[in-house]
Amino acid sequence: MADQYEFASLLTAFRREAGLTQRQLAESSQLSERALRDLERGRVHRPRQSTLNLLADALGLDDARERRFKAAAVTPRRAAECTASRPGNGLVGRRAELDALIGLLRSGEERLISVIGMAGAGKSRLLREVATAFERDPEWSVVRYPVDAPAGAVGRVPAERPGTPGGVPAAARPAALGPEGGPDEGHHALLVVDKAEEAARDYDFAAMLRRAPRLRVIAAERMPAVRSGRYLFPLAPLRVPDAADEVVPCDVTRVESVRLFLDAAKRAGGPDRPFPDDLAAVVELCAELDGLPGALAAAAAWSPVYTPRRMLALLRRDPGALLESPGGDGGLWNSMVEAVLALHGDDRAALARLATTGGCWSIDAGAALLDHDAHRFARLVHCLLSLGFVRPCRRGGNRFSVLNTVRGALTAAA
């Protein structure tokens, strides 16, 4: 069984086989002699992937020996720790965003917040977690609209007319907001709005906030209308693994997108632990699905009938196939196509042209492709980035790429 001592012995054997001293190997691999000594003495439990790559190159290992060398760096102990570290059904990869929103709302620094992002980014789930956090505080009253709202708490009514107290029609005013549309004396109130486009027909948020200084509003929107006074909080996709991360399974399963997929697959009835070949396919799936939590969960629902590699092949043939539920509901895929169609025609045409590059592009390169002024193009990229249609590339400075799922949605919308 592999452990750090087996790796240390293998490293020493390969170094001697290559006829190198520790100093020579350290110089050719760009490591310090001390670091190399620690590796050969078994003091390092978890060599970095970059270190393994440098050593393999300096030792001149062929493919088979390199695989053996890198496999020896992965210990069963670390794999067990990794499996135990995964939560069963928690909010994966959004702790920083959750803490930031809670802080903004509690401080009153921002009283009207719109969480924006691509369909499947996890806006609704994040808002539910925000609501739950404030419901634990006796000094706050929380109203959810419309998802999870208590029966009868919020009614569907005609559009609001000026002059209605608090900006909320009486039929739509939850008791927690009081007669003037604000919280009861001595309390703070939080209105949590999923699908803000629908809620705008029932609520005049600006009027409510003017009348109720203790009120906060947080809303999820896919395509925010131009309104003053609201703070836009873009929700980006989760991080996806680097290709190099595949060598160390424990590292890969700590990446948020992979952890979310594996947890969702297990809940859907898939295997408790994927085989190594399946894990490599999961890494590719997470990248193909852009780390979008909703897309990952939708794909994971197919785990009882498809292996990850079969899912990957299906996804590459038909980008929307796995985003329809096994029951035939195409909700998420339809939402993605609708999001693309909701873009202004010129912006959608520009996005489609950028999608044809198939890779990363800089502001200057993208502006040249579209024959735009660079600053005008930067403004477009800022908008597309906030809405979740493009994402930064992890390498190469200020470079961006169109999401894979968006490429598929553009084709479906054409």
UniProtKB/TrEMBL annotation:
<dbReference type="InterPro" id="IPR001387">
    <property type="entry name" value="Cro/C1-type_HTH"/>
</dbReference>
<dbReference type="Pfam" id="PF13191">
    <property type="entry name" value="AAA_16"/>
</dbReference>
<dbReference type="Pfam" id="PF13560">
    <property type="entry name" value="HTH_31"/>
</dbReference>
<protein>
    <submittedName>
        <fullName>AAA ATPase-like protein</fullName>
    </submittedName>
</protein>
<dbReference type="InterPro" id="IPR027417">
    <property type="entry name" value="P-loop_NTPase"/>
</dbReference>
<feature type="domain" description="HTH cro/C1-type">
    <location>
        <begin position="11"/>
        <end position="67"/>
    </location>
</feature>
<dbReference type="InterPro" id="IPR010982">
    <property type="entry name" value="Lambda_DNA-bd_dom_sf"/>
</dbReference>
<dbReference type="InterPro" id="IPR041664">
    <property type="entry name" value="AAA_16"/>
</dbReference>
<dbReference type="GO" id="GO:0003677">
    <property type="term" value="F:DNA binding"/>
</dbReference>
